[in-house]
Amino acid sequence: MYALVEIKGKQYKAEKGAVLKVDKFDKEAGDKVEFDSVLFLSGEGDAKVGAPYVEGAKVSTVVKDTIKDSKVKVLKFKRRKGYKRTQGHRQQYTLLQVEEILGA
Known about the structure:
The chain has strands at residues 2-7, 10-15, 19-23, 32-35, 38-42, 47-49, 58-68, 72-78, 83-89, 92-102. The chain is mainly beta. The protein has one domain. A hairpin with a 2-residue loop joins strand 1 and strand 2.
């Protein structure tokens, strides 16, 4: 069984036991988070499509950790002008462990 769930405006495929890497939440490790914005629910031989969401469906998750992604370098450069600027950025993510998917 799996579900397509919308988290912070992005869609993720959630299966029981899977770890989702989503944009940062202000939650501590071990906190429980439930999402009821399930777009699609696929079970044993049947599928439910929401309009826009499947009624009564929930995805229950637990926050595992907050991590930083690898560094992305940003370079601004103008030729023959002596202008060069570099900047680095590390995006923060939250790891969510899917505990269970409740269907309607």
